[in-house]
Write a structure and sequence with these properties.
By secondary structure, the protein is α/β, with parallel strands linked by helices. The chain has five domains: 5-88 and 772-800, no CATH class; 92-270 and 733-764, von Willebrand factor, type A domain (Rossmann fold, 3-Layer(aba) Sandwich); 276-373, Immunoglobulins (Immunoglobulin-like); 379-627, Rossmann fold, CATH 3.40.50; 634-726, Macroglobulin (MG2) domain (Immunoglobulin-like). The strands form six sheets. An eight-stranded mixed beta sheet has the order 15-14-16-17-23-22-21-19. An eight-stranded mixed beta sheet has the order 24-26-29-28-27-30-31-25, with no helix packed on it. Strands 5-4-3-6-7-32 form a six-stranded mixed beta sheet. β27 (667-674) and β28 (681-689) form a beta hairpin. The longest helix has 23 residues, at 55-77. It is elongated. The model is unreliable at 1-14 (pLDDT under 50).
C-alpha cells in the first residue's frame, strides 16, 4: 500500500499543479446518505443501551464510531485526486562568442557609466547595483583601457554574478565561436553534473582566442539556426561588439530566429561612442567612361570629436584627384561627394582618406577603398523597329548623337535603300548570324511583329539575354508586347500581356494627356533618377508632360520590379495600378519593359537634357553585365571587384567559340596570377550547364589578381584582394544593429547592468510540458490506519465501560 502525500507535496512545490477531486466507487451522495444512516444509528444505539456510562465517555465512543463510519463511507466512494502539472523542459541555449580581432580592441572608458559597466562585469561592483552605484578608487586605473576580450574573460570568473553557472542551471549550454562562420570550440567547457561552474567557465574562456579577421554575424547565426537538433533551443545568446563587416544581413538572420521561435538574447561588449574619425565606406559606379565626369561618395563618421575642420582626400591609383573640406564634431555621419574625370581605360583603385587626429581610438580606419573599371569601349546598340513612328525617330536621333554609343538599326518595313546613305546606321535586313546579336550590349525591340523576327532569331535573342545582354521592349499598339505570348521572347517580358481586350480598345488613345507616376522603387532607382538629389528628381518627373497611351497588361510577373505606373482608376486591375516601366533579371542579363510609345513627349520644354539622361542611364545600366565580362567570347567575371584576405572568390560566366556558338566542354583551363608575385597558378573553371562555367577559391594573399583562360588571352578577369584590416575599423559597440537584431529576433539586448536578469529571462522563455497524474487516495495506508485507530479506540472504551 502506497503513501502518496509526500510525493504530492513535492509536486505541488515544484510546479504548482491544478487539481480536482473525483470518486470511482459509489456516488458521493449515496456515501453521504449511508454515513448519515450509520451516524444516526450509532447515536441512537449508544443513547439507548449505554445509559449507565458517563456522558463524557459515551460522547467519545459515539465520535469514534461516527469517524470510523465516515472513513468506511469514504473508502466505499473510492476518492481520487487528479493533478495537471506544467513542468519546464530543459532545452539547449546556443551561445555564440565573437572571436574576431575587434574583440581585442582596448576600449577607452572615459565616461563614468562605461567604467561602471566594466566594474559590474569584473566583479568590482554589485551585479544588481546598476549604473548609480559608487566605484572603488582603483576602477579607472584597472578598467580604463581593458579590452573587450579581457572583459569577457573576467566576466567568466566573476563569482558575484556567476553568470555561466546560473545559465547552465536553466539550460544546456552549447558554445560556438564565430568570425566569417560559426564553429565549435576545439575543447568544450568542463561541466559538473551538467552545470558550468565559475572555475570551469574561466578556464574555458581562457582557451579561446579572438583571431578571426572578419565578422559575419548574420551568416554565423543563420548557420547555427539551420543545424539539425533533437530538441528546439530555448534561445540564442550572442556575445559580440556588433562589428558585422561581411556575409549576409544580420537582421534577416534574426528574422529567421523569430520564425523558428528561438528568441535572440544579445550581450553587447564595448563603448558606444569612443573618440574616433573614420571612413566607413566608398561608393563608386562599377563602370565609368574615360573622359567623363564621375562621382564618388564616401561616408565619414566622427565620434565624440570636438568641432573642427578636416580635409577628405580622394586618390585614384595613388594620385590625388579631388579634396573636400568637412566640418566635424560630436557624433556625425557625413556623406562626402567627390568628382573627377578618369583619363585612360583600365582598373582604378579609389581611396578616400581623412587625417589621423590626436587621441583617436582607432588607428587604421581613416582610409577606405574601392575599385572602378574605366572603359573607352562604346556601347553596341541594336535597334529593331517594324515601321517608323515618333518614338523611334527621336530615340534613333539621340542614339546617333551620344558619343558613347555605336548604333545599328533595322527598319523591317522602312523605305528601301536607307542603308546606302553616307554614315547610315541602318542595316539592309535583320541579321542572320549569331555574331551581330552577341556583339551587341543592348537590343531595343520596338513594335515588331514576331513573325518578322522568326523563331530562330527570337531564340538567339533569349539566349543572348540569358548570357548577360540587356533588352528593352519599347511597346506599341500593334504587336509589342501582346503578340509575344507563346514565343521565345515571352519569358523575357517583365509583364504578362493582356490578350483578352479587343485590339481596337488596345489602340485607343486618351483625348487628354495623363501623368505617369514613379513608384517608391522608381524614385530610388538609378534607371529613372534625373538628379542626384531624390527630391529634385521627383520634382523633374512631376513636371514631365503626360502621355495619351499606355499598353494594357494583365499584371507584372513575380520578381519583376515596377518603377513607373499609370494611375488612372479605369486602368487599374485586380493586381493594382497598370505598370508602365518594369524590369526583371533573366539569367545573367536584364529585361526592361517600357509600356508607352510617347517618351518623346518628355523632350517638351527641356529638349535633350532629361531625355538623354533617362536613355543614357538605361543604356549604361543594361550594358554593364556584358562590358564587365572578360571579352565578347569569354563572358567571365568575378562576383565582386574587391575582396579581403580570407574571402571566397567566385569566377563564373559563359564562353563561346568563334561565331558565338556555345562552347561545350567539361572545363576551362587558365592561369591565375597575383601582381608582384612570381609565377602563375593553374586554375580551372568547371562546366555547370551548357556553356556556363564556374570556379572558386579562397584568397590567401593580398594583391591585384588576374585570371586568363588558355583559349582566349584577350579575356582577362581582374579583381583586387585587400589586406584591409576590417576588424581594426570597429572601434565602437554597434548597439543600434544589436538592438535591431534583438527586436527582430523576439529577444532582448542587454548591457552589463542587465546581466543578472539574463538567467531568469532565459528561464521565462523555456518550453513547458503538461503531465497528468491520478492519485488513488483510497489506496493510501492512512485510511486503513485511521479506520483501525477509530475502531480500536472505541473498542477500548467499550471494554473499560464493560459494554458488549
Amino acid at each position: 500500500m502506497s503513501f502518496p502525500f509526500p510525493s504530492f507535496d513535492m509536486a505541488l512545490a515544484a510546479s504548482a499543479p491544478q487539481w480536482a477531486l473525483g470518486f470511482e466507487g459509489i456516488s458521493p451522495g449515496l456515501a453521504a446518505a449511508l454515513f448519515l444512516v450509520l451516524a444516526v444509528g450509532c447515536i441512537w444505539a449508544y443513547a439507548r443501551w449505554s445509559s449507565g456510562v458517563g456522558m463524557g465517555r459515551r460522547v467519545a465512543m459515539v465520535m469514534l464510531r461516527v469517524l470510523a463510519a465516515l472513513v468506511l463511507c469514504l473508502l466505499l466512494a473510492r476518492p481520487v485526486l487528479r493533478l495537471s502539472l506544467k513542468e519546464r523542459v530543459r532545452q539547449p541555449l546556443l551561445v555564440l562568442v565573437d572571436s574576431s580581432e575587434s574583440m581585442q580592441f582596448p576600449d577607452q572608458r572615459q565616461q563614468r557609466e562605461d567604467l561602471q559597466r566594466a566594474a559590474i562585469a569584473t566583479g568590482m561592483a554589485s551585479p544588481e547595483g546598476g549604473l548609480g552605484q559608487s566605484l572603488p578608487p582603483s576602477a579607472a586605473a584597472e578598467l580604463g583601457e581593458v579590452s573587450r576580450w579581457d572583459l569577457l574573460q573576467k566576466l567568466a570568473g566573476n563569482d558575484r554574478l556567476a553568470l555561466w553557472q546560473r545559465l547552465s542551471e536553466q539550460a544546456d549550454l552549447q558554445f560556438y565561436q564565430f568570425g566569417r562562420s560559426a564553429f565549435a570550440p576545439a575543447q568544450p567547457p568542463a561541466m559538473e553534473e551538467g552545470r558550468l561552474g565559475t572555475a570551469g567557465a574561466s578556464a574555458f574562456f581562457s582557451r579561446l582566442k579572438p583571431q578571426e579577421q572578419a565578422t559575419a554575424i548574420g551568416e554565423s547565426l543563420r548557420q547555427v539556426l539551420q543545424e539539425p537538433r533533437a530538441q528546439a533551443p530555448v534561445g540564442v545568446l550572442l556575445l559580440t561588439d556588433g562589428g558585422n563587416n561581411t556575409g549576409t544581413s544580420a537582421i534577416e538572420a534574426s528574422q529567421i530566429a523569430l520564425e523558428q521561435k528561438v528568441p535572440l538574447f544579445i550581450y553587447g561588449l564595448g563603448v558606444t561612442s569612443p573618440l574616433d574619425l573614420l571612413v566607413k565606406e566608398v561608393h563608386a559606379q562599377k563602370l565609368a567612361f574615360a573622359g567623363e565626369r564621375t562621382e564618388v561618395k564616401a561616408h565619414v563618421l566622427s565620434q565624440s570629436l570636438p568641432e573642427q575642420r578636416v580635409v577628405a582626400v580622394l586618390k585614384a591609383n595613388g594620385e590625388t584627384v579631388d579634396e573636400q573640406e568637412l566640418t566635424l564634431g560630436g557624433d556625425r555621419d557625413l556623406e562626402v561627394v567627390f568628382h573627377f574625370i578618369p583619363r585612360t581605360a583600365g582598373e582604378l583603385k579609389l581611396e578616400v582618406s581623412v587625417p589621423l587626429l590626436p587621441g583617436e581610438a582607432g588607428k587604421g580606419n581613416n582610409v577606405a577603398a574601392n575599385t572602378m573599371r574605366v572603359t573607352d569601349t562604346k556601347f553596341q546598340v541594336l535597334l529593331i523597329e517594324q515601321e517608323p513612328r515618333w518614338d523611334f525617330r527621336y530615340l534613333l536621333d539621340y542614339l546617333q548623337r551620344d558619343p558613347r554609343l555605336e548604333v545599328k538599326c533595322v527598319m523591317i518595313d522602312g523605305e528601301p535603300g536607307l542603308e546606302q546613305a553616307p554614315g547610315s546606321p541602318f542595316l539592309p535586313k535583320l541579321p542572320e548570324d549569331r555574331e551581330t546579336f552577341f556583339k551587341s550590349h543592348v537590343i531595343i525591340l520596338g513594335d515588331v511583329n514576331p513573325e518578322s523576327l522568326g523563331q530562330q532569331r527570337m531564340e538567339i535573342i533569349a539566349e543572348w539575354v540569358e548570357a548577360g545582354g540587356g533588352i528593352i521592349f519599347l511597346t506599341g499598339s500593334n504587336h509589342n508586347p501582346r503578340s509575344y505570348v507563346g514565343t521565345p521572347l515571352e519569358p523575357l517580358l517583365p509583364v504578362v500581356p493582356d490578350t483578352v481586350s479587343p485590339r481596337e480598345w488596345v489602340r485607343q488613345r486618351a483625348s487628354e494627356p495623363f501623368k505617369l507616376e514613379l513608384t517608391r522603387p522608381g524614385r530610388e532607382s538609378a534607371y529613372l533618377q534625373m538628379d542626384p538629389n531624390p527630391e529634385v528628381s521627383q520634382e523633374i518627373w512631376s513636371r514631365f508632360p503626360g502621355v495619351r497611351w499606355t499598353a494594357p497588361v494583365s499584371r507584372v510577373k513575380t520578381g519583376a520590379e515596377v518603377l513607373l505606373v499609370d494611375t488612372r482608376p479605369d486602368r487599374e486591375g485586380r493586381y493594382g495600378q497598370l505598370p508602365v516601366f518594369a524590369m526583371q533579371g533573366y539569367g545573367a542579363g536584364r529585361s526592361v519593359y517600357f509600356g508607352t510609345d510617347e517618351t518623346y513627349r518628355w523632350r517638351s520644354r527641356t529638349g535633350e537634357k532629361y531625355y538623354s539622361v533617362l536613355w543614357g542611364q538605361i543604356m549604361q545600366t543594361l550594358s554593364l553585365q556584358l562590358l564587365e565580362g572578360a571579352s565578347p567570347l569569354t563572358q567571365l567575371k568575378s562576383d565582386r571587384k574587391q575582396y579581403v584576405v580570407g574571402d571566397r572568390v567566385v569566377i563564373s560566366g559563359n564562353a563561346y567559340t568563334e561565331g558565338f556558338s556555345p562552347l561545350i566542354q567539361p572545363s576551362l583551363d587558365g592561369m591565375l596570377k597575383v601582381e608582384g608575385a612570381e609565377g602563375q597558378q593553374p586554375f580551372s573553371l568547371h562546366a555547370t550547364e551548357r556553356n556556363a562555367f564556374r570556379g572558386d577559391f579562397v584568397a590567401e594573399k593580398p594583391g591585384l589578381y588576374t585570371y586568363v583562360t588558355q583559349r582566349d588571352p584577350d579575356g582577362i578577369v581582374s579583381f583586387e584582394v585587400l589586406d584591409a584590416r576590417l576588424e581594426q575599423s570597429q572601434t565602437a559597440l554597434n548597439d543600434k544593429l544589436l538592438k535591431a537584431m534583438a527586436d527582430a529576433g523576439g529577444g532582448k539586448f542587454v548591457r552589463e547592468e542587465d546581466l543578472h536578469t539574463l538567467p531568469d529571462l532565459v528561464a521565462s522563455r523555456a518550453a513547458t510540458v503538461t503531465s497528468f497524474k491520478k492519485l488513488d487516495l483510497y489506496h493510501s495506508g492512512w485510511f486503513l490506519t485511521a479506520l483501525l485507530a477509530f475502531l480500536f479506540g472505541e473498542w477500548l472504551l467499550r471494554r473499560l465501560s464493560r459494554l458488549k
